[in-house]
Amino acid sequence: MYSEKSLRRFFEKTIPDGDCVKWIGAKNRKGYGRTYDSKKRPAPAHRVAWEIKNGPFPEGMLALHSCDKPDCVNPDHIRPGTHKDNMKDREERGRTNRPFVGGVCQNGHRLDEGNIYYDGPSRRCRQCRTEYWSEREKTRPKRNRGAA
Ligand SMILES: [Zn+2]
Ligand SMILES: [Zn+2]
């Protein structure tokens, strides 16, 4: 458990940054906030933020950011994951970001401001999503609502 004093000290080192919460205290080389956990052991600030909200962090897991900002301590942007998850995220990000460079998605839709939405850190095409869902709607077997 975090004492009231340590919580106050923690939140004093944060400022809102859009949807994120920026850590303005000490940071390590990689840009992660440095602080102490409830057992007074040095710990990354974003992991501590997660613990403050959710309780003890799962042993052996990494605290991964969905927003891709190492200094963000918004617990809603942080989730436990493995090193493998982290690599997979990166890879997927690289893959999804690539088609956007030329200004069109992989299906050739123009990606102007109005046609992009964000899924975590990934930019996606609204038109593709609309088409995907209307396609699913058509092919979905008819079933009584609530019967599942
Ligand atoms: Zn964030
Ligand atoms: Zn598209």
**Main β-sheet description:** 2 strands, antiparallel
Q: β content, as a range?
A: 15-25%
Number of helical segments with 4 or more residues = 4
Query: Considering DSSP H and I runs of 4 or more, what fraction of the residues is helical?
Result: 25-40%
> Can you tell me the residue ranges where pLDDT is under 50 for at least 5 consecutive residues?
97-101
> What is the strand tally?
8
Give the end-to-end Cα distance, rounded to a whole number of Å: 41 Å
Q: What is the H/E string?
A: HEEEEHEEHEEH
User: Which ligands, by name, code or SMILES, are bound?
Assistant: zinc ion
Q: Compute the CA-based radius of gyration.
A: 20 Å
User: What would the average pLDDT be, to the nearest integer?
Assistant: 86
Helix/strand-derived category reads alpha+beta
Summary, kept brief:
The chain is built from 4 helices and 8 strands. It has 148 residues and is α+β, with helices and mostly antiparallel strands.
What do these coordinates show?
The protein is an alpha+beta fold and 148 residues long. It folds into 2 domains: 1-81, no CATH class; 87-141, no CATH class. It is built from 4 helices and 8 strands. Strand 7 (116-119) and strand 8 form a beta hairpin. It starts with a helix and ends in a 9-residue tail after the last helix. The relative contact order is 0.10. The model is unreliable at 97-101 (pLDDT under 50). It binds zinc ion (2 copies). One zinc ion is lined by residues 20, 67, 69, 72, 74, 77.
